[in-house]
Amino acid sequence: MTLDAALPSLSDLVVERVGFGIFVVDRSLNVLMWNRFMADHSGLGPEQVIGRPLFEPFPDLPQAWLARKVESVFRLGSFAFSSWQQRPYLFRFDHDRPITGGVDYMQQDCTFMPLMREREVVAVCVTVSDVTHLSIMQREREEAVAKLQEYADRDGLTGIANRRFFEARLHEEFSRWQRHGGELSVLLFDLDHFKKINDQFGHVAGDAVLRVMAQRVEGVVRKEDTFGRFGGEEFALLLPATPLDDAILVAEKIRHTIGDAPVEVHGVTVPVTASVGAATARAGVSGCDALIHEADAALYSAKRQGRNRSVAIA
Fold first, then answer.
1. Where along the chain do the CATH 3.30.450.20 domains lie?
2. Can you name the CATH fold of 3-138?
3. pLDDT by residue (tens digit) across 56-78?
4. CATH number of the 153-313 domain
5. 198-234 tens-digit pLDDT
6. Could you tell me where in the chain the CATH 3.30.70.270 domains are found?
7. What is this structure's pTM?
8. What CA–CA distance (Å, rounded) separates 114 from 283?
């Protein structure tokens, strides 16, 4: 046998042995070819598929989408592609990855290739590549990046938003208020005589008090609010769509949430109170820094008036 005579059988062997699916359909979506990968993963051999409309043995295929895809290749004579990110799979094939990967079926990339004869498309060859491993790795990477971003936005001691994230959110909300108006308020508060707590009970107890206080406050704020640690024992609360009168009610709620019950730390009872300053966005407030400055001034006014109270600057 000459090499030329052997080539057709070699090409057939390659098609059968490649590690991805290959099938060919005509314009009516009748199956003309079905390779071993497709047979192994579908459970249907070529003799059960070839010569039949593709949707008969596979009624769960996205029929309208697939028909449009194939028709576009016939009409335009150009390649088409479908990524697993756009459509996770074409065929509901099982995959061999751990079930912990979070995918139900093999994730697939599909290429649609025109088969030409005398400049006319006579059939479309579709390849189906198993990209399950790639998709799982990418999902895991995206989850890891999101987790790292979350850690970057969180205060290491209390787990609430850190100052950088709080200030970014404040800038967003203040810009929105400048464009659309409405209401926007800010609270600044800190724990009264916190240095004495550290001096009397130790820094470990002081850290525990900060964590407990943050948990208490986080439990009473709204989802749309942003609660963050400014540094040390100073905290901030961003209140979108909140006028100053309502902000003062929130300030009093927080003050009581912090101070109505002492904190138990390593068998020691630590009494805690807080002073709160409130400010609201209004004409004449030039920017985020000015709003924070007014809330800070209100906070120090609360301290001068005896602490454990809420003060607002209107």
1. 3-138
2. Beta-Lactamase (3.30.450)
3. 999 999 999 999 999 999 999 99
4. 3.30.70.270
5. 999 899 899 999 999 999 999 999 999 999 999 899 9
6. 153-313
7. 0.60
8. 65
